[in-house]
Write a structure and sequence with these properties.
alpha/beta, 361 residues, 8-stranded parallel β-sheet, binds pyridoxal-5'-phosphate, single chain
């Protein structure tokens, strides 16, 4: 019995594929701008490396979700003229550091404006006011909206904020519902303007509506999934929509042994502690030397056994769980379809214990 180093498990992140996806998406949404959404550690790809790669590829807008991530991007060298946008805050957030670091704030509530007032950070912060258009997550209701806009304009007069954007988030699950949300959004923008606001950036769409509907793009589209080459709507591959999957999850065959039915079983040192969902069992395959082997065994904590019969498999061979498909492996899209989730969830769950390796060329 020979074991290879389990450290051979890795998530390869293809920065050239990422660049190409960004180029393609920017062309598709133009003249609207692309904001690359880097929440959840860039959906498992790595916040700082992907943020810097996006800036290197010419992207001028980054979405960070929370303030810690926004500050990490600035600390890593994202320049001041690139927008870093954060929009999810705890109830008693101290905004001082974020304002000093020139982070754009997505504002849903009066209490958040009061937080900016309290911070007194000595510089003006750009705010994007959020209207709820049907998701009922956060964002001002229609009734709260005029009050939120008026309060922001008052802070603008006092030099504390610049009312820069109006935005919302939509479900992107039904064309009709999205259309209704867009109408509500336009009404909110008009109302803000009637109250005296000059809105520079209006944004509503994420990956799905942003690619499918030019009427949903307004001035900017916020995309996560499509940047990683994971389709956000049904019935298409990444290639069909001009994208390439960025992440490949692979390991090395750690052990081979004869099994009861005259074949062999390979041990692959990746398990649920590394982020493999246990419900992939019986639904997806792993690819070794161009052949797919169904994952029918229980997914263990740190490993999984796969029946490789008499296939061409040796200890140390590369076993690909998912990737862009160059070696015949399944895509994250196929894993998502087979297990009833989005590919986004599968890449985001790949555990921090799995090393990311960033490659070009
Ligand atoms: C996650 C998120 C996005 C990006 O969503 P994708 O479907 O991955 O493109 C955009 N906007 C907001 C507010 C989000 O939370």
């Amino acid at each position: 019995m020979t074991y290879t180093d389990p450290a051979s498990s890795e998530a390869i992140v293809d920065l050239d594929a990422f660049d190409a996806n960004l180029r393609h998406l920017r062309e598709e949404v133009s003249p609207a701008e692309l904001m690359v959404v880097l929440k959840a550690d860039a959906y498992g790809h790595g916040l700082v490396p992907m943020g810097l790669a996006a800036v290197g590829a010419g992207v001028r807008r980054l979405g960070a979700l929370d303030l810690d991530s926004a500050l990490a991007l600035r600390a890593a060298g994202v320049p001041d003229d690139v927008t870093v946008f954060a929009w999810l805050f705890g109830p008693n957030t101290d905004f001082s550091a974020a304002i000093r670091a020139n982070v754009d704030l997505g504002i849903s509530r009066l209490s958040e404006l009061q937080g900016i007032e309290r911070a007194d950070a000595g510089r003006r912060v750009r705010v994007h006011l959020k209207i709820d258009t049907g998701l009922n997550r956060n964002g001002a209701t229609r009734a709260e909206w005029p009050g939120l806009v008026a309060a922001a304009l008052e802070l603008q007069q006092r030099g504390l904020v610049e009312v820069y954007g109006v935005w919302t988030h939509i479900a992107e699950a039904s064309e009709d519902e999205d259309t209704v949300a867009m109408e509500r959004f336009e009404r909110a923008v008009a109302e803000a303007e009637a109250l005296g606001a000059t809105i520079t950036v209006r944004h509503l769409a994420a990956s799905s509506a942003g690619l499918r509907r030019d009427d949903a793009r307004f001035d900017m589209v916020r995309m996560g999934g499509h940047c990683w080459g994971i389709p956000s709507f049904d019935g298409v591959t990444a290639e069909d929509i001009g994208l390439r999957q960025v992440m490949t999850l692979q390991t090395g065959v750690a052990l081979l042994r004869d099994n009861d039915h005259g074949g062999r079983a390979a041990m692959l040192p990746l398990g649920y502690a590394d982020g493999l969902p246990t419900n992939i069992r019986g639904a997806v395959s792993v690819t070794i030397n161009g052949r797919r082997y169904p994952l029918t065994d229980e997914i263990g904590l740190d490993s999984v056994m796969v029946d490789v019969g008499s296939g061409p498999v040796a200890i140390g061979d590369r076993a690909i769980f998912f990737g862009p498909g160059d070696s015949g492996e399944q895509s994250v899209r196929e894993w998502g379809d087979a297990t009833g989730t989005l590919g986004d969830e599968i890449v985001t769950r790949v555990a921090p214990s799995v090393p990311r390796r960033y490659v070009r060329g």
